[in-house]
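User: Could you walk me through two proteins back to back? I'd like the raw sequence and the structure tokens for each, with a short line separating them so I can tell where one ends and the next begins.

Assistant: Of course. Protein one, sequence then structure:
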Amino acid sequence: MKTRNIWRGTLGIVLYLVLALAPLGFMLVGERPMGREFVRELSVALGFVGISVMALQFVVTARISTITLPYGSDAVYHFHHYMSLVVFGLWLAHPVILVVKFPWARALLNPITAPWRARAGLSAVVAVIALVIISVWRKRLKIEYDRWRIWHGILAVLGLILVMTHAFMVGKYIGTPVKRSLWLGYGVVWVLVVLYVRVIRPLRIARRPYAVAEIRPEVGNVWVLALKPVGHAGMQFLPGQFAWLTAWKSPAAHVEHAFSFSSSAERTEQLEFGIKELGDFTATIGELQSGQHVYLEGPFGAFSVDRYPDAEAYAFIAGGIGITPIMSILRTLADRGDRRPLLLIYGNRDWEDVAFRKQLEELQERLSLKIVHVLERPPEGWEGEVGFVTKEMLDRYLPPEERQVTDVFLCGPPPMMDAVTKALIALSIHPKQIHFERFDLA
């Protein structure tokens, strides 16, 4: 399975590079303007690559499992974030080079007197600047997540339409039938992706509803949401994966939120999610009613022991609600009768924050599982670990002779995962043995 994912991942990277750089090849096909300065041609080339990379952004975030599975959803979304900055740089470099090098180009920055082709290009740059600002500083600007998603989509679509309009109105390198066909083909692919994401996929999801079977409180301000499929066979998933949940609205509203499965992958007749009250949407989870219909899209994610079945042992390091996907993994391994040695290091602020603690105690009877609780503010008389998960603590619970045969799974706050990853590498655990997914996607 690992080899297949490596090949698929490599193929995906190669295909992405080909499509991103294809406009450079388009420029050389057929007739092209001659006698133009190199700097001017460079600015055009950067602009064209910027258009293709922007179009690919829609494909990258379309949640097509074939694309996301080899890398993991978090890696795909972080790649999308970084490439958005690349698009910003490319789109900005095109006019800046022209304005700095050629005095005549400065008049094109005047939106009142500039020709429409220049206005379209300038408007596209303004749209992508606004897109970057609301995305990079969303939390500082206190933009609510669902509202941000709406404006993110509007600005992205508007920017791409405007920049394509600019390119076609300028006409250089797009003036021949062959080149028009190539760029129209790009446009058709983009339209099909948008059609799939905005229309076809929501219709498919709407035809496979789930009913709320139970909503029960759990320790640590967590709710356990149990769902049963309505009129269909349900969803097969790998332990540790997640799904996008839509409640109170149609899937066409695109206001879904990502949550990890907490139930066993061997029991798909009822799916369960552990959801902590952390934001506007999660604060309302407890208001769901039994029998109410909700919708799921998934499964997604590469955070699963099933992708690394040859490991002789597993270690899990969780922080707070990061225990949720690990609960799914542990329950699945218990249902399978897996007897490999397992270690769970579970960090929380205090004992009252330790979600699923009773269920974890029960799982110890079915698994070869050692649990280490780490508390920042332990109660009086506490004899367990105190503070944070450190290198010294990991050194005690992961003996040197076990490190080369143990795969480690991390899930928790980003600062914790960063610190623990560095500590594990310092203990000579190979990066290939360390697995995690980050859920701060925006």
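----
Protein two, same layout:
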Amino acid sequence: MKNSRSNPTVVKSELETSAPGLVQSWIRFWFSAASPVGLHTLRFLAGLLFIFWLIVLAGNQTAFFGLAGWVDRDAASRLREDFQTSWSILYLFDSNPGWVNVIYWSAFLILILFTLGIWTRITSVLTWVLVVSFIANPVTRLDAEPLLGILAFYLMIGYVLLGQWNRQVSWPERILGSNRTFLFGRGEQPTSIAASLAMRLLQVHFAVVVVTSGLHKLQSGDWWAGVAFWYPLHPPFETTVDSLFAERAHANQQLFFLSLAQYILLAWELGFPLFAWRKSWRPVLLGGTLIGWIGCLAIYKQPLFGPIYCICALSYLTPAEWLGICDKLKFAQGWIFGRERNVQIRHGSKVPS
């Protein structure tokens, strides 16, 4: 009882019992201890996304990054305000392409370690630094890249704080990170307030991003008129008079469905906070992000928005839902391997005469 005040879980419970109902709900929302399996899964998926995002630029890293390529220091300072970038670790080495190569290829090692869940206390911080540094590049800048920085930032918060209040953690674990974070977590995962807090921060920030995106669309007349999807589907350098005449017979039907799709998108974005945290609306949450992924590729040719939105949407799943998914995967794995074992035994056994 003497050390109960130093235990954050006990302190949180005492706050909940002594606080009014609204405050209790607020504390439960932000500081409820939960299984970190959701945090581990998001880390694994986000790490894969970071690796694929960076590897497509391999071979051009000295031209795209640093200050010895297409953008020198003067150009970087002029573009900094337009692209809202303030710093990059690559700029510390001025115009040395050798260091750019070292950092670029070292980034893959760090991202792989982070994705696998090795030394997450250190690799999560390095991952955020690297993601922000490579986002600062204005040459290959995509509209969705700032969301990568947001995702890396909240994952960093989760893993920097994960297990810090556990008195039984060894000093190497306290510095490098928990040894239970490999892949999706090994063995039974102790509940964590840090994991819950990181997921809540990501959830709230992503909800603000989605609603802001919807409000921004309302400032354009094309979205009010229902023709916002028509223009990216008909690029000016690809659309010809003949192609427009070929579509003339079905123009009304095409515009109707395009208008319907964009109004559904607006309703999904503006109403996002109303269903994102509701379990019964999971098909709307996850189905909407999956359809949006397909739409971003088909209409806007944007490869990043879809996977980022899907990963952030998965953050709204509760720990109970994550554990349920893990149980189903274990059951499916056991059923598959058990069936293969039975087939091998049946084929290996002697058939009686």
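The chain has a mean pLDDT of 83.

Let me know if you want the two compared in more detail.
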